[in-house]
Amino acid sequence: MSGMSHLIQRLVSFHLALFLCWGANVPTVSAAEGEGITVVGVGSVEAKPSIVELTGLVMGQGQLAGDAVTKFHGNRRRAEEAFKNLKIPGLEVVEEGMSLYSSMNASQMQAMMRGMPVNNSQSQELSVSETLKLRLTGIEKLSSQELLETIVKIVDSGKDAGVVIGNDTTPSIPGSYNPSKARNTMATFKITNVDQLKEQAYAKAVQDAKTQAEKLARLTGVKLGKVISINGEGDSNKSANAVYNQMMAQYIAAGIAIQSDEQASSLFKAIPVSVAVRVTFSIE
Amino acid sequence: MLTMGAHLKLFRPDYSFCFRVMIAVALFFSSGSIESLHAQIVIAQAVAMPVPAVAEANAASPHKMPGFSISVDEKKLNLLDDYERYIRHRMWEKALTALKELSETKSTSQLLPTADGFLVDAEYRIFMALVSLPAEGREAFRLFFDGKARKEFEELSAQTDVLTPKAISEAKKIYSQYFLTSIGDDVADLLGNDAFERGEFAQAAHYWRSILDHHSDTNLSEIDLNVKYALALIRSRQPEQAAANIQVISQQFPDKKVTLGGSAVDPVVYLKSLIAAEPVRSDPAANQIPQESNLINHPVNLQQGKNKPQWQLTYLDQAAVQAIENSQSDYYGRGKSYQTFVPPLAVDQKRAYINFYGVCFAVDLQSGKLVWRNAKFQELGNHFNNYSFHQSSNLKQYHISVSGDVVLATLIPQKEMNHYRARYRLFAYQAATGKELWTSNASNESYISKPLVEGDHIYVVSHAQNNKLLTLNSLALKSGRKEWSIPLGTAVSGNSSNGMEKMPVPILQKQGDNLLILTNNGALFEIAIPTKTINWVFRYPYKVSQGNENYYYAAIDEETELHTDGQLIRDQNLVYFKEAGADEVYALDLAAKRVVWKRPVKESAQLVGLDQKNVYLMSREMEALDRETHELNWAVSLPVAAGGLSALIAPKGAWVFTSRGIFEVSKTNGDIINIFRGSDLTSLGGAIDLHNGLVICVSNQAVTAYSISPQPPRKTSENEKTAP
Lengths: 284, 724
What we know:
A: alpha+beta, 10 strands, B: alpha+beta, Serine Threonine Protein Phosphatase 5, Tetratricopeptide repeat, Methylamine Dehydrogenase, Chain H, 3 domains, six-stranded antiparallel β-sheet
């Protein structure tokens, strides 16, 4: 009996999955059953990034806790001074919070992953670390060349000061593949005022829906009436998803709230903000 | 068979591993990223672990500590324990009987342990047990032995005016057995005079010192004894201790004169004039300032754009690059970190000499031209591909040193690189031409330490293949002929990634007549060269990891990547040392034979310098430990990516050659004062040295020299090193 209910559950799940897949691939134009014409309009506006963000990690490690703290304070101070001394207008160092932990070295980690005995586990060093966000605003005024030179200055200065720069600053585990280590994005470009841009995009999406519906009405010889229902489908932007997901993971790991009014991309070019709306027009 | 075994071991199926990989993959997808997985590991390990094993090891007798093994005479040790127990219980008769038996028992080993981690000469240890008798025990001692001692000494004095070897031997016996009797000071003075006349100044100092320290009721002139003691110290090239004794004379006997050579002289003035006249080192070869101090008294001024390289020579041949890459893609060279290997360097007034995997070559310091090489760089790549080479290779065993017209190198010759368990042999080349002068011909000996040259003698540590007994050898510089050797003890070796034993590489340093040997295996030796004996050994726990971590893609530790070496740096009577593979730094007072302090540091850290305030260590960061408090004054993260860990300690800053150029670090707080990118930017950085006005940087691929000033700076002498 339980086997039968299991089968039914699976069938239901399968059909639900099929339905969802179908839903994702429906044509952007559809006619509701006897109620009007339903279309999906897409609107997109582009904006040049105004912020570039780099992630840096400052750390102090030591067998003695006092050593770890001394090292951390020294490295932290030098990192801050190094960025300050660059005197780059608009460069801001945002503290993401300090953490204190005792961690295995790479060899111990790998041994544990393989189910092997972990040697010298009592001699783990104490670590004090802090993630710093290096935010440079006003980059829309810079040319690509100028921006590149500025970013390189920040990266060089950070590396010289012992800061680990990159979006993935965690230590790598040998024997395991980590895609974000394989290509560690150094800089993330961001646009602000995403809400405003979305409003513009929605206006375009509604206009697009109306154009489509009118075209359908004309083809089918009916007259388009007023809007019966409208359903905003939200962000349809796909290009920045890879970076966005990666950042999501980092934000969640760091316990930081996401700044919703910003949108990121790993490329320095105009970032599209796209939305889709499902609109149903009545037929008169 | 071993080779086959190693291969099979590497590819042994590990179902447990597969299961864990699956779980790891599942965790990865369920948690979204590896960061959260890492976070879970971190939390799981946050609990502190007790370390009872280490505490036990620390409390063990020096000859029972983990690490380097030195045999002691257990029978004598038991007698000594009995004696000390009787003393504690004030059982004088039994104690003195045990002492007599102790003196008369023939030793099976030269050394006996002390309570504070040292192994000392057995006779000296028994002597110390004797002189540590309390007043009541001393009285009993005299009551028992004074008559017999007087009789023996009178017989000895009556024999002849000239001391024959037999008479000296008798006198030594009386000294060791009856020093606390009323004739003890006389016999010590007699032996001191004899040792001084025979040129055994350290021994003479020992005898006179024993009267001053342990025979307070002596009828000998105290000022005479002090002057003789100071003279012996000066002649045995121990100027710091001599200066301390002169100060004692000036304070305790102001304005007093002594008769020397028939005339009355002021001892303080006379002794001071002797110190000034006595060269710290008697021969030019030994006048090289020890490189390990790395202290320079001249500011280094390197500025981007202003200091172009005087010359650069690239030795990393394309064939070698390919061979190194191959050694990583197959498993032959895994765990050796060939990519980050920075070859050793030696410099004299005219040339720089480098030993690159056995290809030794000389570069003209002025022009940067290759003067000679003992083999072709291109051929190295072919030999490098042999699996046998990777089995035998131990990158720390490549050494090079220069003395006068002779360059000495330890290496596996190219034609032997495919031999199973190839030995590291000692070669001597003519410095100007590279002509091979001689090769060590001992059939089964592998040389592991850097050869230390003084005068016509080479001091080098070796071991026989398949044997872990380390031997100190003295070889003739001209011919390589073995003059004498001393067995030191048995090393505990680890396993290399190829399943072969990994021997420790000792460090040698000579001052005066004494040679210090840091085994990098848990023991520090002091050897008396004139008498060819071990003065003492300081033992401390040393754990060799013999676990199986040599699987196919085992993580390479930071100390392997940076090729961290052990190092000892001496400043007067203080020696600071940290061994390779150990995680503690020691400060040891050589005169008092006691640990001043010790403290934990990173295993990958290497001692690189010393000044008045700090002891400097390098790893991926530079650390400054306070010499007084042993606290960490500061540390700075640096982009260090290769071996050759070193620093030039200038008056204000320390200079370090990193993968991002040459960094000047403030000695006050570790701040980066200056970065000179230099001309070897594609390298991983490496070693830095200063010679003849040239900053010489050796990386994993090239040697580059930068001229820093029109006037050649010089390294400070040891006296200057301690000046305020």
